[in-house]
Amino acid sequence: MVAPAIADSADLEEISASAVSWPAILAGGAAAAAISLILLAFGAGVGFSSVSPWSSGGTMTAFSIGSGLYFIVMAMIASGIGGYLAGRLRTRWRSVQTREVFFRDTAHGLLAWAFATLLSAGLLGSAASSIVGGTTAAVSRLAGSSSEVLAGTVDRLLRAEPGTTRDTGALAASHNEADRILSDGLRRGGSLDAADRAYLAQLVATRTGINQTQAEQRVAAAIDQAKATLDAARKAAAQLALWLTASLLVGAFSAALAAIEGGGLRDGTWKYRV
Q: What is the pLDDT of residues 53-70, one digit of tens each?
């Protein structure tokens, strides 16, 4: 059976041409990654790094919402520009149906966004971390480790009454011991068994000069404060991860829409698409 002949040179050109314009995708992705880095530096400059991630309550919530909204706006701007460039700089597909061109432009925007995401996570990761690491990394450390919180908690726990004479060596040993007891309790959900709690209260009473009842109250307050601080930090870290996920999805959508517009302007068909 003889294969059908190709109708004309336009069909031959369409068959031999690639549906993906990689130079346009790489250019759009590189532009999106660079703009993201600029916007990260701008966000750090206008005050994100000055928000204390060690605070709890309203400040921590404001930090998560403010940074999350900024990540979304940043993704819309950077991905939109990158997707537009990917659509505008692509080669022109001749004798291709309108719906197929629409699909290819959408794919070019998504590929430019994907390349920008990988480039930002890889090559630009160290630069981005150095810019916003003062806040985001601090939240992550706090969410995964309790050592920073316990350092101040144990200091307040063993704070002596004015005029109390203390042995510096014994105090350092007591500090380390109290730190280990609290760390073990926090790893088990913040609950100290009765024996550990009683021993810790006795240790506090011995090193600070207060009575047993006051020591027990101080231990209970220290445990509650450490638990509240860690819980707030973990919630903030989880919220920040959700905001980052939302910003990635918004970035992909923005890149696809911008690539459709850029491709339509490239072909002179944008007014018909609208």
A: 334 444 555 556 777 888
Q: Are residues 52 and 105 in the same domain?
A: yes
Per the listing, tokens 């549906």 go with: 19
Extended strands (E) in the chain: none
Q: What is the pTM of this model?
A: 0.68
Amino acid at 140: S
The conformational region for residue 21 under phi > 0 = left, psi -120 to 50 = alpha, else beta, is beta
Q: Does residue 79 sit in the same domain as residue 137?
A: yes
pLDDT beyond 70 at 105: yes
User: How much of the chain is helix, strand and coil, in % rounded to 5?
Assistant: 80, 0, 20
247 and 223 in a common domain = no
Q: Report residue 161: phi and psi, to 5°.
A: -70, 150
Cβ burial, residue 269 (10 Å; 0-12/13-18/19+): middle
Residue 3 lies in a domain: no
Give the number of C-alpha atoms closer than 13 A to the C-alpha of residue 142, restricted to the C-beta side. Answer: 28
